[in-house]
Specification:
It is a single chain. This protein has 14 helices and 13 strands. By secondary structure, it is an alpha/beta fold. The protein folds into two domains: 240 residues, Type I PLP-dependent aspartate aminotransferase-like (Major domain) (Aspartate Aminotransferase, domain 2, 3-Layer(aba) Sandwich), CATH 3.40.640; 91 residues, Alpha-Beta Complex (Aspartate Aminotransferase, domain 1). Strands 2-8-7-6-5-3-4 form a seven-stranded mixed β-sheet, with helices on both faces. Strands 9-10-13-12 form a four-stranded antiparallel β-sheet. Strands 1-11 form a two-stranded parallel ribbon. Helix 2 runs parallel beside helix 11 and helix 12 packs parallel to helix 14. The longest helix has 17 residues. The protein starts with a strand and ends with a helix. The relative contact order is 0.17. The structure holds pyridoxal-5'-phosphate.
Length: 342
Amino acid sequence: MIDLRSDTVTLPTKEMLESVLEARLGDDVSREDETVNTLEETAAKLLGKEAGLLVTSGTQGNLVSIMTHTTPGDEVYMEAESHVYYYEVGGLSAIAGVIPHLIPGNRGQIPPETLEEELRPPNIHFPNPRLVVIENTHNRAGGTVIPQENIKAIADISHDRGLSLHIDGARIFNAAVALNVDVAKLVEPADSITFCLSKGLSAPVGSVIVGSEEFIEKARKYRKMLGGGMRQAGIIAAPGLVALKTMIERLREDHENARILAENLTSIENLKVWPVETNIVIVDLANTGYQSTDFLQKLEQRGVRAVSFGKTLVRFTTHRMVSKEDVLQAFTIVASILESNN
Ligand SMILES: Cc1ncc(COP(=O)(O)O)c(C=O)c1O
């Protein structure tokens, strides 16, 4: 099976599994797990922030960050298709109690002038605007990269108006690698970032929030409230450290495989292929006569898995466990299914 559903399907490497056996462990709720402490310090340093906090998932990292930046009833601005709004079970409203204010983006980017227009002035009738969330890379926009200039412009506007900026950087290293910039420089204007160890970086579990010492101290308490205070969490942190050491640069291979897949798919008549920037390829079947669910079923029968991104949209994601040969094989299968439907 060629599994292109997500980069979350990556399994830990042998080095990651071996690191667990050697990890120095302790009770992390009491901050006695040396491996967790090392991961948090390493992540903070890598992203140029004061402190880090290991969390169970990207979803928990975003929720803890939103809770830390806001109080219930506050308004949070985000791109209309952002993961925080679309895929995180409404936790931002159900648990953090905030009001999402959605801004339609341009391939995942919030145009600065649109943010200016959308930000509401203080008014007795309005919720308090408190936070802006951006996503880099942007999943539903097709793994698009939010460039430094946009982040800086969004941060400047947010800060001028007294709002903080959080980056859902589940795939921030894909963005940094694609842009060839230092990740710390890329996220420099943001007040907090969550990134995932468990996606393209191939670690089995975990995400990390980074920000100021003060922010992370407060976030630690919200993590505990949400049940994320773990004990010998070094068994998660150890593979995370291996991921940061060994998996960042190789994301380029995933990007290259995505580009090869997209380039080949473009040759199929009637198939619309979205522009590819990182490890995500989205195709639109609208002109092929297929809906995504029927197509995915056929695809799976032929040994390829992908996911639906809408009625006629299908997402393929490249990662460490698929090779160039695999993506070429996947292309051949997609082409044969679509050709037999003509
Ligand atoms: C952009 C983005 N943010 C956050 C998440 C949530 O991460 P997790 O699945 O670890 O909760 C994902 C997961 O796919 C994602 O793509």
